[in-house]
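As a representative case, we now present a protein record of this kind.
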Amino acid sequence: MFHETMGVLKLFLLTLALGCTQQPPRTLKVLTFRDRQSNALRQALPQFEAEYSVRVQFDDIPASSVATKMMTDLASGGTYDVYALDEPFIPQFQSKLLPVSAWPELQPNTMSGFEEKALRAAEFEGLSVGLPVNGNVYQYIFRKDLFSNSEEEREFEKKFKRKLAPPQNFSELLETAQHFYRPPRMYGFAPFTKMSEGTTVELLWLLAGFGYTPGDKTIQLSKVIEALNFYEQLLTTAPKSARAWHHTERMSAYAKGRVAQMMTWNSFFFDLEDEYKSLVVGKTGYAQSPGNSSTSLAGSWVASIRKGSPETALASKFIQWWTSPKLTSQLVPKGLSTARRDVLTQPELNGQFPWLNTTHINFERAFLRPRHLDYRKTSDQLSQAFTRWIAGQLNTRQASEALHNALIDMNRLAAGRDNQKRAN
């Protein structure tokens, strides 16, 4: 009996010893934005965890809170290994992020297959600090069912002496908006007018239609005035409430079938084709954005590695897996807005999601926001002057002068981002 008891005790002690020598799984900590795309990635995480025997702590928070969360985290030394951040904030955090050229385990073809503008979104002062995980383009959409309606076609051609089709320039954009302005059932355009980064994007898009692109050395005040006069006409084709619209209000109006055309980000397209969220499923057309020069604006979220992360090699593998063509192709049907050219142009995916190739076309023509440490400050200046003018607090001359000065300041600080040399 004694020997049996001792045997059981030895087995228990051996089991306990073995258990104590087993290391807990490594943990990779990731901070990113919360949306349909992060939900899709979360579902795929077990693939990575199984392959590398790790646990991924995947913290996704509202996009508007990511930069603040990063700032707080880095101020205390940094606890995350991977950050996904919106491109305007890259200059602010670049010194804390590991350049891609220093990533371990970097595969030779890692940087191939992406949209060029999306790769450039990850750069500042010639250094790339990450890979694009979310490729967004501010681009034109329209109600193709209305545009192909024979009665609409006849009335439009009678009025404007041309075929009803996606506009090629801003003059045609306004004509189309005026044609479909039939309140309260239908409106010609859905603007973005609530003070935020979205208003800055709307303004940069507007100015691009009049020949301005960020980084221009000269900015004519007369062109700013001309742009505002045009936008004032465009606003008359939108609901009166549209003078304080954010994404929620404008996308809701379009999804309810009350808007004929608009500019928006491709990350919203999935919801427009969701029968539980939209009354216009299958009725949206996707076209090249109107303008004699590029009027599409590219914006990407970039996955980066924190300098000093104890899991640098694992973080490098994770971001490469996250952005790989194989996983990207799996996640696109679940809502991913990819920045990969080789995925956007896949014929089989375009058969399911007709906006992908159009997004690629708009990506190729797109311009980028200026890049400097004080971007947030200058962006707020632009947004404030623009929205005050929309609200009637500034007249056109006052707003144009304020915008003109803010643009000069923005371009001076940006120092010609488009001419920076590519790194990595």
Q: What stands out?
A: The radius of gyration is 25 Å.
